[in-house]
Structures are given as structure tokens and as C-alpha cells.
Amino acid sequence: MNIRYKGETKIGVLYKECIYETNSIPGDYYCIKDDSNNDNFYEKKLFEIIEETIMKVKFIGKSSFSLINGNIYEVIGIKNDYNDKKYQIIDETKEDYLFDSKYFEII
Q1: Which domain of life is it from (predicted)?
Q2: Based on the number of CB atoms within 10 Å of its own CB, is 44 exposed (0-12), middle (13-18) or buried (19 or more)?
Q3: Same-domain pairing of 25 and 43
Q4: Same-domain pairing of 45 and 63
Q5: For residue 92, what is the domain's CATH number?
Q6: Residues paired with 43 in a beta bridge
Q7: What domain count does the chain have?
Q8: Are 39 and 63 members of one domain?
Q9: pTM for this prediction
Q10: Which is higher by pLDDT, 7 or 60?
Q11: What is the mean pLDDT of the chain?
Q12: Which positions ≥6 away from 17 have C-beta within 8 Å?
């Protein structure tokens, strides 16, 4: 199940409006792997369940070891940081990172 974090950003742990996946739901808490790559329990009231299609984008920036120009990636979260929009994407290293949206084209 996908859930969206609605609380305040906690740098390196949870980002407001980012989407996380949870498999177990014990009591009033979700168990999720947060951005520090740890499994932790968070209160359900800080999240909303989302039922949306995963957005796909094409990378239009310069190829690197983590992203390849022209490849299609799934956006698993969106973070609005000041005036910048970042996409949370699982890259070629099979890890998820935040990338500036200006390097992607929505398909």
C-alpha cells in the first residue's frame, strides 16, 4: 500500500508530500522504510493512503551512472522544496533518490 506523508519535513528521514510504501500495519502505526533507509513506526495520522497511478517520466538530462538519457522512470514521490520540485525515482542503481524535475519530461 502506498501512503503520502502529510507531516512536516524531517530532513534525511521523512519529506512532506513524499510517497512511501508500507506492508505491515500494526495498530495505530505504519511500519515504513524511511529516507534514512531504516524500518520505523510512524503514527497513521501523519499519512494518507493514496490510490493513484504511478507517474512515468523520461530523463532528458545528461547520462550518468544513475540516470540514462531517454530512459523511462517511475516517480514514486514528489517533493516541493522551496521553488524547486523534486521527483523521487528509483534510478539505475536500484536505489531511490530525489532528482530535480527540470531534467524530466512527463509521459
Answers
A1: Bacteria
A2: middle
A3: yes
A4: no
A5: 2.30.30.750
A6: 29
A7: 2
A8: no
A9: 0.54
A10: 60
A11: 85
A12: 4, 5, 6, 77, 78, 79, 80
Cα separation values, 90 from 72, 74, 83, 99, 103, Å: 11, 7, 23, 10, 15
Q: How far is CA 33 from CA 5, 12, 83, 95, in A?
A: 12, 12, 27, 12
Going across the sheet that includes 96-100, the strands are 96-100, 84-90, 72-81, 55-59, 104-106
* Nearest-angstrom CA–CA distance, 92 and 11: 24
- Residue 66 structural domain: 55-106
Q: Are residues 62 and 92 in the same domain?
A: yes
Instruction: Please write the tens of the pLDDT for every residue from 9-39.
Output: 887 788 888 878 786 566 888 888 877 778 8
pLDDT in tens, 55-87: 899 999 999 999 999 999 998 877 766 667 888
Tell me: do 59 and 33 sit in the same domain: no
Q: Is the pLDDT of residue 92 over 90?
A: yes
C-alpha cell at 66: 544513475
Does residue 50 surpass a pLDDT of 90?
Answer: no
